[in-house]
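Ticket #4471: structure output looks truncated?

Reporter: J.K.
Steps to reproduce: submitted the chain below (261 residues) through the standard prediction queue, then opened the result file.
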Amino acid sequence: MRIATFNINGIKARLPRLLEWLEETRPAVACLQEIKSQDEGFPAEAFEKIGYHAIWHGQKSFNGVAILADGVKPEETQRGLPLLPGDEEDPQSRYLEAEVNGVRIACLYLPNGNPQPGPKFDYKLAWMRRLQARMRELWQLERPTIVLGDFNVIPEAKDTFSVRAMADDALTQPESRDAYRRLLGDGWTDALDTLNPRGGVWTYWDYQRGAWQRDHGFRIDHCLLSPELADRLVSAGVDKEYRGREKASDHAPVWVEITGT
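Returned output as attached by the reporter:
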């Protein structure tokens, strides 16, 4: 069973590339971020034509997440992260959760946090606290679970082409990294890192400054597995070639392969 995540950076603009990737690689589940579409504008019919059923949580022009499943309808279990005591209402569409083939799938688009310091960075850290709370709830279910998507965190120095270039970015700040480490400390397995411990694996290349051509990328798209799923991990990788195609997203798809249905 292949489960993938892909920050598509505008589902309408990238739809031909997205359909191409789905048909060529055929993941059982595909989680999408930055669909940048309102709910009523989501192109569900295009996916149904190639055998995928979808649920989505949209927002006009920004954010938005979706879960696609091959041949089955995802059973939605949570839309948006629950608020913690003292939190204000959050209008941003960044989290969607469903059951697919006996696996709990949590798709997320974590806030970028730039510029930092400032309110956007504060929102990022608050969102990560809410994420940890939800992931602890999922942990207690003791079910095969994967939390995946664009985390907008570069976990370690080995996960970026240049420590110096990213030194002031919200993606590498100690507070961001500490929050990510706390997720792992709760017992979740970073699949791509586990199988590539030396690093040097990128999932994102900026459109600017020839980043793709120079391979100046970094790793911000992650797949975190509960113990029940980590025991079934076979492989993980990045479909890097799709970043080089015409009108591509600035992210490449990331996937894990697990044993089972």
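Triage note (M.O.): checked the attachment and the full token line is present. The radius of gyration is 17 Å.
Status: closed, working as intended.
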